[in-house]
Amino acid sequence: MEQQNYDAIWASVVEQVKTHADVNPSQADAVLARLTLQAFSDGFCIVTADNAFMKGWVEKNFLDHVYRALEELRGVPFTVVLDVDESSAPQTSAPAPRPSAAPQADQGAADAKAAPAESAAPAPRATGASDGFFNIPNPFARQTAEPEPAPQQEAAPKAAAPEVSDAAEPEAPVAASPTSSMTFSNFVIADTNRIAYEMAVSVAEKPGRAHLNPLFIYGKSGLGKTHLMRAIQNYIQETQPHLKTVYVDTNELVAGYADATAARDTQKSSYKHFKAPYESADVLLVDDVQILERKPGTLDIVFQIFNKLTDNGKQIVLSADRAPKNIDMDERYTTRFNRGGTFDIQPPNVETKVAIIKSYIDEFRLNEGDETLDLPDDVQAYIAEVSGSNIRELKSAVTILFMRMKGFHTDTVSLAEAKSLLENHFTGGPSRRVTPEDIQKQVEGYYRISHADIIGKKRSRDIVLPRQVAIYLIREMTDLSLQDIGRLFGGRDHTTVMNSIEATTKRLHENTQFREDLDTLKGLVREALS
Questions:
Q1: Alpha-carbon span 513 to 519, nearest angstrom
Q2: What whole-number distance in Å separates Cα of residue 515 and Cα of residue 480?
């Protein structure tokens, strides 16, 4: 059978998977499109992924749906062999960070985002890090002679221009600015962020593909959303310099729209000039779009920009601190947010935070030229265990300790000293991942039923509904497979689990009060972790 026939068969399987009630169609498109059907006959097929992570992620999240889709399409049960074929992986490697312009001294906190790091870049490595990772200044960074100011681009002299011609389109200030040192090679990869990382790389390698346009990345503050967006921008500027990339924070969009509105009475083209820099982008990256809540004017004009870009095949990348469905705006806007690929970043576990700390210590060593520079293992473990989910706080804690060591001319810091210095540093407290037991406990309390009932055999409505809700929330808030979830509820099979998820999904679409109940339960689960 020719490969094009295999491709057509696989495309039909993907489309069938997308019809399943508990599947996010955009995520199915983004993930399953990276698999290749290698062999096929009735009842048997071989499918390959381009790396081991993608294989594992499909096994955990989509393989049950692939089995089901094949049986629905062909009418017979299938054996599916999922393997890794690294030869199908994209060949483009992550570039080293761009050489920086002369670094600026005494930058304020607001400028730290764009300040490029000195680029004696090591070869890309998965657990590398740099000062630019979350923009924490390095107290040991070498100070060079006073740099001359970087030359300004002179697209249009800033004399007091009495008139603004409609033909003159202002340059987007963010596009002309130096890009930050945030790259794919210094992003610390873990299971909690790997899928978002994979999709960001995919967009950077080939922007504008419909199944990832827009790419929407969400998660709590300080988990690396901005890093991935800047990495996309850096990568495209390095490998496809003919494409215009524009990064903008939503606060800047809101302020720009306010200025355009204020100038509307005297300058009829003010809205046109506001939109022009963004509409001319090949890749537009908008950070913190949740800020558009309850700002209908800005939201409307922003979506005019989005529509024009996507209609012309241009790429949009968005980030927010919550999923699109939890942003308070009209459904027609959140639907557009969800049209491409939507992926979250979860808080890192302790092991990941220790890896980040170690990579950050490596960067200090490099900048200081002192291979002996280190923090004791018990201090590293303490920081990882007591820090919250915001990695910026974790990194600034490491910086505080190194500044203390430099200021007191010592080569170490004790655990007691670290505890004293960081006593009031962390705002979120220790963080941990949601467990199935957390969810079961909150559902049992909310519906006033016992644990024995929720995992037992009773089929009365007052037991079945909470059981289905718990199954649905465990599927949504954890990484467990359908089989693993079934084992938590008295050994139920994956078909029963799937039916519970589908029933809950249907109820969510039909019942507003039920949606509110689920939102309340999610909040209770998260509050119990803090």
A1: 10
A2: 23
Whether the CA torsion 129, 131, 136, 139 is positive or negative: it is positive
Residues 175 and 333: their CA atoms lie apart, in Å, by: 26
- Give the whole-angstrom CA distance, residue 524 versus residue 308: 40
Parallel/antiparallel/unpaired status of strands 245-249 and 283-287: parallel
Beta strand 36-41 with 44-49 is: antiparallel
Tokens standing for residue 340: 């491409």
Say if residues 302 and 292 touch (Cβ distance below 8 Å): yes
Report the distance separating Cα 341 and Cα 354, nearest Å. 30
- pLDDT above 70 covers a percentage of the chain that reads 78
Q: What domains appear along the chain, each with residue ranges and CATH number?
A: 3-88 (3.30.300.180), 126-137+167-344 (3.40.50.300), 350-421 (1.10.8.60), 436-529 (1.10.1750.10)
Note the pLDDT of residue 520.
82
Task: Please report the pLDDT score of residue 330 as a whole number.
Answer: 80
The one-letter amino acid code at 390 reads N
Contacts of 44 by beta carbon, 8 Å cutoff, 6+ apart:
78, 79, 81
- Asked if 128 and 184 touch (Cβ cutoff 8 Å), the reply is no
**Residue type at 484 in one-letter notation:** D
* Number of other CB atoms surrounding residue 475 within 10 Å: 23
* Averaged pLDDT, groups of 10, the chain, 530 residues long: 78 92 76 87 88 79 91 91 71 39 32 33 34 38 39 37 40 45 80 86 89 88 88 91 92 87 74 88 93 85 89 93 81 81 82 82 79 88 80 81 85 89 70 79 92 92 94 84 89 90 85 80 76
SS3 for 466-482, per residue?
HHHHHHHHHHHHCCCCH
Instruction: Return the percent helix, strand and coil in the chain, to nearest 5.
Output: 50, 10, 40
One-letter-per-residue 3-state SS of 331-368: HHHHHHHCCCEEEECCCCCHHHHHHHHHHHHHHHHHHH
Task: Please check whether residue 262 is in contact with residue 430, taking contact to mean a CB–CB distance below 8 angstroms.
Answer: no
H or E element that contains 370? none
Residue 183: Cβ-neighbour burial (10 angstroms; 0-12, 13-18, 19+): buried
What is residue 9's predicted lDDT score, i.e. its pLDDT? 92
d(CA 135, CA 399): 11
Phi/psi at 124 (5° precision): -55, 140
Rounded Cα distance, 25 and 28, in Å: 5
Q: Where does 63-144 show beta strands of DSSP type E?
A: 79-84
Tokens 């049986």 found at: 71
**What are 37's strand-pairing partners?**
47
